[in-house]
């Protein structure tokens, strides 16, 4: 048995829920303690949020101006510098973790287990391949450090109420200057976050235009849902990239997911398989989305959405 | 830039319906259509566009895989790559070994830019690009949807969970292509003919001094859990009452 280190994801002030999912995953691995590390400019506040996650032993924060923004090339050597006592190093399978963790693994000279969806033993995991059309059980060697990313949708958030020790620490690592952060253009939105929302409404190519997509937003606002989209809808410019759900977008697990005008390509469906209830509205009775829908309605979305909106009023 | 190197992985075509072998030893790949990993095709397209803008002189397509991966390299040559290198092996090559192998080719070719797909649609690992950047001790720009070059630097737009992020990296660097970086061109018949005369070199892992070091044993492959069969409703009222029955409204 060894200790587990989790790399915290945050936006400079708030801990991302993906970190809590990593704690839940780590709790399933036999361990001598779960620690979290926060890389930030002044991470005490974020660290205290992490310290509240049940099951965490210790939270480290490494404060450095260079950590103002998440640059994998800058963070990875710092992770390596504190990696020694740990048998497992985990990060979330979000764009943050996907960027960082392979760089950490390579610097440590070890492979990585991506998208851990189940822990079968300390070195045995299940993960999806082929856009979730197959699940492999992989076994890593117990003689090496295990680096992995955690598929957030497979885990519930860890309980809160913990009181881990918080410790500021510094690391001795050569930080590269070859990579410089520019800016983040985030679509301002006061809607629920797609990755954590309990209700999600997704629209597909059939919406036909940015203007028509407003229908989806209106209905979502009515029932307090987050809005997602298929690649086709994003590519066509109806909605921005961060709404894409699927193999190459977000993997979500809301209690309720409603698809309007979505065919159900495997690359999309892999992102919604963990939803509690899947509802599909499509005018084609043969659309593959109906194979996985719990509730299906063969109808024209342009009639259904306004009717739903008025009847749910 | 003098050279851009692009990685092309041979994978099961994205339109093929994947079936798991009944004995759990993997997925059925015999007789199924194989293609260039879609993200790698986007990587190559970007390299070609950079060259066509006059910002690079040569595009080298490389693949690590079986002899049949020559087909994907030929497609890459037909798209417009100048030459191709196949590191031929029938073994399963994990991302870290792929990165070590690509690094050997980098040492030989000294490209200023390497572009690979952000993930391969077979194993969905999404590791090779960042691992290569780490081993090469160079910057990485992953999940790229836009890139421009000036003064030995690349300005990279990345698709991240919260929106679009820009970073600036010094060259040489490794980029990984995301879906919206570009739309790859179709190859035309004359290009396929022309590609037959372009150089395609085959080397072995031995030639490069690489001994594979597999670290993950694939114990078993299972089909995904099936969801229970659902119900069809007739109209919006039916939908609302079905949702109410489940306590969802
Ligand atoms: C490498 C790769 C990665 C990919 N990653 C993703 C990903 O992460 N996420 C993703 O979503 N896709 C992804 N895709 C794309 C995916 O394969 C599909 O092309 C895409 O999901 C289709 O989107 P869609 O369902 O909106 O459009 P379509 O497949 O065109 O479906 C539109 C549907 O709308 C229905 N329809 C039309 N009009 C109406 C109407 N008036 N009322 C009701 N229904 C109507 C039609 O019957 C049809 O079923 C990826 C593809 C590749 C190759």
Helices and strands, with pairings:
The complex is a heterodimer of chains A (313) and B (249).
Chain A: E1 2-7, H1 17-27, E2 31-40, H2 44-51, E3 58-63, H3 72-81, E4 86-92, H4 95-108, E5 112-116, E6 118-121, E7 124-129, E8 134-140, E9 146-150, E10 165-169, E11 179-185, E12 199-203, H5 210-223, E13 226-229, H6 231-235, E14 256-260, H7 266-269, E15 277-282, H8 289-292, E16 295-298, H9 301-311
Parallel strand pairs in A: 1-2, 1-4, 2-3, 3-10, 4-9, 5-9, 12-13, 12-14, 14-15, 15-16
Antiparallel strand pairs in A: 6-7, 7-8
Helix pairs in contact in A: 3-4, 5-9
Chain B: E1 3-7, E2 10-12, E3 34-36, H1 38-52, E4 58-65, H2 69-79, E5 83-88, H3 95-109, E6 113-117, H4 128-136, E7 140-150, E8 153-160, E9 163-170, E10 173-177, H5 189-195, E11 200-204, E12 216-222, E13 231-233, H6 236-245
Helix pairs in contact in B: 2-5, 3-4
The structure holds flavin-adenine dinucleotide (FAD).
Flavin-adenine dinucleotide sits between chains A (204-206, 230-233, 244-249, 261-263, 265, 267-268, 282-284, 287, 300-302) and B (14, 38, 121).
Notes on the protein architecture:
The complex is a heterodimer of chains A (313) and B (249). Chain A contains nine helices and 16 strands. By secondary structure, chain A is an alpha/beta fold. Chain A has two domains: 168 residues, HUPs (Rossmann fold, 3-Layer(aba) Sandwich); 114 residues, Rossmann fold, CATH 3.40.50.1220. In chain A, the strands form three sheets. A seven-stranded parallel β-sheet of chain A has the order 5-9-4-1-2-3-10, sandwiched between helices. In chain A, helix 3 crosses helix 4. Chain A is globular and about 60 Å long. The relative contact order of chain A is 0.12. Chain B is of the alpha/beta class and 249 residues long. Chain B has a single domain, classed as Rossmann fold, CATH 3.40.50.620. Chain B contains six helices and 13 strands. In chain B, strand 4, helix 2 and strand 5 form a beta-alpha-beta unit. Chain B is globular, with a radius of gyration of 21 Å. The model of chain B has no long low-confidence stretch (mean pLDDT 97). Chains A and B meet through helix 3, helix 4, strand 5, strand 7 and strand 8 of A and helix 3, helix 4, strand 7, strand 8 and strand 9 of B. The complex binds flavin-adenine dinucleotide. Flavin-adenine dinucleotide sits at the interface of chains A and B.
